[in-house]
Amino acid sequence: MRLLTSTLALVLTFVLAEASLAHENPAGLAARHNRLAHRDSAVEARAPSGARRCPNRNQKPTSAPAPNFAAAKNLTTPSSTKKPASTPAPPPPPPPPPPAGVINVVSHCGPIGATQQTTALTGPNGKIDWLMCGFESPGGWQPPYVRVQDLITHSLSSALQSPNSPFKACGPYLSIFEKYAQQYGIPSIIMASFSMQESGCNPNTVGGGGEQGMMQITTDKCGGAPGGNCKDPDFNIRTATKFFADTLKAHGGNILSSIGAYNGFYVGLTKEKAFAARWSACCRCQNNGDYIHQFVNGWLQNINAYGPIKLGKYFNLDVCPAH
Which stretches of sequence are listed as region Disordered (predicted)? Predict the structure, then answer.
């Protein structure tokens, strides 16, 4: 009984306390709640920032996204997006080279027409119509530009070794030709060819106009000849070689116009003017229309320009009486 009475008293005390709280001042309750809120904020502030939220241990970690290689292949740099520069069309192939052993120069007067073998009208240094470009036109002779080194030639010493060489008459003077060829830079066979063309390499020759010796130099060039002998071989060859070297320089290195000048040719000379003396008292004062062809395709090839192949097409001196 006493235990039951104690239990009832305890329950009654609890009920009275709850009733007292229900009638407490509302401001006091608010203050109490405010203190609890501040306490929770302070506790949270003291906690490390990384520990404010507990991780979800049931959630599986996510890996970094795999690279998209397909997209990367499609990426291009700015330079690769530019259009490639247009490539110019390749130049046309050069013309095939001429056969070995013939002249090879730029021609402004049609086909050169050179052949390895000398014929009546052509040879290794070009056909006669090319060599005499313009000769039969109103504008006159316009020699193609050819340098000494462009010419196809034999050396004089090797030419003399041939048993049929037309230069046999020049053999005794080979050392003189070569001495002055070296001094003045003119191949010895060129000067020997002048001698063959002019005199047959005969040192005693006197021309119709008084020309002297194997090189047929004019009398105005005879000053200083030893003992006044303009036909002296050493003096004659030296004087002619120096004169031709000076002529070549004056012609800008054009060997064709220089060879022509030795025979009285000049740029612009027409066929009519060259052959005009035919009707005069000095028929042989004509310019030989075949001279250059005979020179470069005959003598320079160790071939006699007057036979067995007669080189040329004009033969204008054939109508003149012999000396």
Answer: 40-103
CA distance 127 to 113: 5
Amino acid letter, residue 66: A
Q: For residues 180 and 169, give the distance between their C-alpha atoms in angstroms, rounded to a whole number.
A: 18
- CA dist 10 and 168 (Å) reads 166
Report H helices in 68-123. Answer: 69-74
Global pTM reads: 0.69
User: What pairs with residue 217 in β-bridges?
Assistant: 212
What's the one-letter identity of residue 134?
G
CB 153 within 8 A of CB 298: no
Q: In whole angstroms, what is the distance from residue 102 CA to residue 255 CA?
A: 16
CA pair distance 139, 133, nearest whole angstrom = 10
The answer to whether 297 and 122 are in contact (CB under 8 A) is yes
Q: Give 80-125 pLDDT, tens digit per residue.
A: 455 556 777 777 766 555 556 999 999 999 999 999 999 999 999 9
Q: How far apart are CA 58 and CA 200, in angstroms?
A: 124
**pLDDT value at residue 130:** 99
Residue 243 corresponds to which tokens in the numbers above? 């004169």
Signed CA dihedral, 178, 184, 187, 193: sign only: negative
Provide the 3-class DSSP secondary structure of residue 206: strand
Are the C-beta atoms of residues 307 and 316 closer than 8 Å to each other?
Answer: no
Is the backbone of residue 134 left (phi > 0), alpha (psi -120 to 50) or beta?
left
Report the candidate in 191, 158, 163 with the shortest Cα–Cα distance to residue 177: 191
